[in-house]
Amino acid sequence: MKYSIFGESHGPAIGVLLNDIPAGVTLDMEEISLEMGRRAPGKSAISTARKEADVPEVLSGLCGGFTTGAPLCAMIKNTDARSGDYSLLKRFPRPGHADYTAAARYDGFADMRGSGQFSGRLTAPLVFAGAVAKQLLAARGIFVGAHIAAIGGIRDIPLTDGGFLKDKTAETVLRAAARKELPVIDDGAGEKMREAIAAAKREGDSLGGLIECAALGLEAGIGEPGADSLESLISRACFAVPGVKGIEFGAGFAFAEMRGSAANDPMEMADGRVSMRTNNNGGVSGGISTGAPLLFRAALRPTSSIAREQDTVDMEERVNAKLVVPGRHDPCIVHRAVPVIEAAAALALLEAVQKLYGIRGLCGRRQ
Ligand SMILES: Cc1cc2nc3c(=O)[nH]c(=O)nc-3n(C[C@H](O)[C@H](O)[C@H](O)COP(=O)(O)O)c2cc1C
Ligand SMILES: C=C(O[C@@H]1CC(C(=O)O)=C[C@@H](OP(=O)(O)O)[C@H]1O)C(=O)O
Predict the structure, then answer these.
(1) How far apart are the first and last CA of the chain?
(2) Which family does it belong to (predicted)?
């Protein structure tokens, strides 16, 4: 599953080119639009004020309602750029954003209007690609969903609690969360998160958090050992999402403080099938799926563009300087990043499934 994302935040358009899509698949465009809408900016006071419709225009790979097998290319127009907000930032780079590293890497030639190719805006085409991947995975009985695990220290109910995974209601609660602006299981926690984001914004600050993502219906035996392990593919896809700074699978960093007797997932036969009584390994062992729900969490940093005065440098005069970042910014990116993390996970899983079953094995109409 190869995909390339193109464009810059204040250029004419952004988009994605997806290869290795099986021919003869009907894509549910309405479902894709819903996914795009979950991420789209400009919807409320807890997100950026930039307004974009984020309607994808398919340029190739789809004809008469079926995929053709040619690379699938989708383009999304940029319509609400305000590039003046960025005129100062080449000279006074924002701490925590990519202004300084982009200048170092691209010798000062990077188009940093709207943060250029580093912008969270580039996650719109990723969501398009992920929505296609989700439909292909669904045809194999695999569901990918996520929710906000925490924002600013306020926690939602973890999927591992409440029996959601055991009684198989996880898909239902994740589908319900996906319809909310703050995709949470516990609406009370969601309201507290909303207030915390609004308060941070009033204080000229921002909040970070955690996203918990699950893949359900994944059979045992998908993945590889080594550099193409399931963890590697998923981490690689998630670290391509701007703002992601950490990933953990299952018990993750808590493993460091556990004993083997507590960390191991006891095995048993249940209805004639191998199963694990606990899921500390997050559904992956040796880089390969165990057949238990695949579970991981991504940590997102607080938005770097905050309204408070910060210490930076003057790249022209080579002296210390102060900066107040102008412009429209997300006071928190976690809620908008939930469909993005799902998309990244779906693309990574599709790559692993495709490696085992091939392109036609995904769900193309057999000739
Ligand atoms: C959906 C989304 C929206 C984002 N919105 C903003 C924003 O408004 N302002 C900002 O400074 N960073 C925003 N970010 C994060 C930056 O793009 C990111 O921190 C920056 O590119 C540096 O990358 P890094 O944090 O991965 O190191 C957003 C990220 C995502 C995924
Ligand atoms: C436009 C989006 O988010 C943008 C992500 C972003 C950043 O630095 O990542 C900075 C802001 O860009 P601008 O200054 O052009 O308004 C956000 O609005 C989007 O996600 O669609």
Answers:
(1) 22
(2) Belongs to the chorismate synthase family.
CA distances (Å), origin 293, targets 192, 211, 213: 29, 16, 10
Hey, which residues does 357 pair with through a beta bridge? none
Record the tokens describing residue 23, joined without a space. 């021919």
Q: Where are the alpha helices (DSSP H) in 179-218?
A: 187-202
Could you tell me the maximum CA-CA distance found in the chain, to the nearest angstrom? 72
For the stretch 150-164, what's the b/e string if a residue is b when 16 or more beta carbons lie within 10 angstroms of its beta carbon?
bbbebbbbbbbeeeb
Q: pTM for this one?
A: 0.97
Number of domains forming the structure of the chain: 1
Q: List Cβ neighbours of 165 (8 Å cut-off, separation of 6 or more).
A: 159, 214, 279, 293
Ligand 2 pocket test: pick from 119, 325, 333, 336 the residue with the most ligand atoms within 8 Å of its Cβ.
Answer: 119
Q: Which residue has tokens 């960025």? A: 86
Q: Which domain holds residue 65?
A: 3-363
DSSP-derived 3-state class of residue 106: coil
Cα-Cα-Cα-Cα dihedral sign, residues 127, 132, 133, 135? positive
Does this complex have an ipTM over 0.85?
A: yes
The CATH number of residue 192's host domain is 3.60.150.10
Ramachandran class of 284: left when φ > 0, alpha when ψ lies in -120 to 50, beta otherwise: beta
Asked whether 303 lines ligand 2 (CB < 6 A), one says: no
Q: How many residues does the chain have?
A: 367
Q: What is the pLDDT of residue 219?
A: 95
Per-residue pLDDT tens over the stretch 52-86: 999 999 999 999 989 999 999 999 999 999 999 99
Give the model confidence (pLDDT) of 77-134 as tens digits: 999 999 999 999 999 999 999 999 999 999 999 999 999 999 999 999 999 999 999 9
* Residue nearest to ligand 2 atom 19, measured at CA: 121
CA 306 to ligand 2 center in whole angstroms: 13
SS3 133: helix
Say if ligand 2 is within 6 A of residue 41 CB: yes
